[in-house]
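During the practical work, I selected for study one protein's amino acid sequence and its backbone structure tokens, as given directly below:
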Amino acid sequence: MTLHAQPTAGQAKPWAFPAPERGTLPNGLTVLRSHRPGQQVIAVEINLTAPLDAEPDGLEGVATIMARGLSEGTDRHTAEEFAAELERCGATLDAYADHVGVRVSLEVPASRLDGALRLVADALRAPAFPEHEIERLVANRLDEIPHELANPARRAAMTLSATLFAASSRLSRPRQGTAESVRGIGAKDVRDFYAAHIRPAGATAVVVGDLTGIDLDAVLEATLGVWQGAPAASVRWAPAQVWEESRVVIVHRPDAVQTQVLIGRIGPDRHDPVWPAHRLGVYCLGGTITSRLDRVLREEKGYTYGIRASTHVLRSSARGDGISLLGIRGSVATEVTGPALADLWQVLRTLAAEGLTDEERDTAVQFLVGVAPLSFETASAVAGALADQVEEELPDDYQAKLYARLADTGTVEATAAVVRAFPPDGLVTVLVGDAKQIADPVRELGIGEVEVLTD
């Protein structure tokens, strides 16, 4: 038997998050480009300034229907023709609406970039929004809602938002609308929302990939550059009224064998100077299978297959009024819901009293900084990160500087940030499970007033 020599690692090379080049087309569209040699599948992300706060009252979900309808026919192609042309380009196109705006995502081989961008330009410039296609999209969305309500994790997320935010806030309601609001959406509503908010001025296109041999300026001028329109009126989101007291909400699911757990509150956005310490501390608490929550609740106690702590930015701006949603989520067997929550709170209290260890901090830094080159290996990952920075009004070099700031963050700073994020008091807990079995054990914990909801 012939054994081949074990391969050895090559010389380590310095890595930095790619800095984009910034420019503007004559129609007002901002363009960020990043040449990534070898990335033959080019990723394009387009940010449209149409936040959910701009949706008319009672028509929540119209931004989602509009986003989905962009590819359902234009002034040049029917929906079927558009799909066929997109397939000929070997491209994928997606669009969705979120609190900060609408995002259009394209991936296409470099050799077909021109053709795919022409289709995207048509979709943005002159979408048809035909009556029958909008009716189909509305019907599809109405079919999705019962499945979301039946999913314990999704139901918990909806309940947490409805509990944390005042009913008047758009943040309190499902991003894609409720059955009642979606049912009232028609093609005219979609066209009106598009006409009021979708403009090249104020929008940003991020293009990432191997641009060798591509005259990107000419391609953009001939495609997205033909999209015209006066600047849309700016939309300012309303200040968020937030519930800040401890509370437990149980969504009753009779005979459920598991309890879905979601514990949350509001936290900082990425403009906050504490963000690097916050990210580091939250990772130490519940970012991976070796984090403190998982070590106790999964490895030592066997209560769960996994429990995670995370931060999701809801909306962010340089004005200082951005917020994020902090969450601890997982599921446990119904009969151990009380003990699992007791141990979870003990982890939080111990963290507040004793802090993180240097070993936990070092392990987190090693992972977060060390995995970055792999995290941004593809063009789509880089484009997504740059588009996120645009949405959150962050500087173009934010991501590049973040890793140096993470490496410089000490254990004390990370501890203070995570304790501030998840204090033992002041958390809203949502449990989706059998209230008859879990309500009394949860009340005995004293972690907040308990309210039971029935579907």
Observations:
- The chain has a mean pLDDT of 94.
- The two ends are 66 Å apart (CA to CA).
